[in-house]
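DM from R.C. (forwarded with permission)

"hey, sorry to bug you on a friday — could you get me a structure for this? deadline for the figure draft is monday and I only need the backbone to look sensible"
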Amino acid sequence: MKRGSRLYFIEVKTVSREPRKMGTLRGKSDSGVRPEENMHRRKIQRMNRAIQTYLLDHRVSRDTEWQIDLACVYLDFSSHRATVELLENIVL
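My reply, with the result:
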């Protein structure tokens, strides 16, 4: 995504959880894992390689600012609802 002169690379992680937890962001899923816990060092390294390839392929200026954001999606299948939380600039 591009907003202004900054590029945003957004990773989406999704978990399902019990309905009683839907009102609480950063709650644990049914499996006990929060979406952001699935953003491991290795995943970030792979994303950085993909981003560098994108920047080179699209001849993006080295001066262009970019960041990685994480969209945490919590699914509640019983109520057919989803809650999304955006964690911005997760890698400094």
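R.C.: lifesaver. Residues 19-25 have pLDDT under 50 and may be disordered.
me: no worries. The first helix runs from residue 41 to 57.
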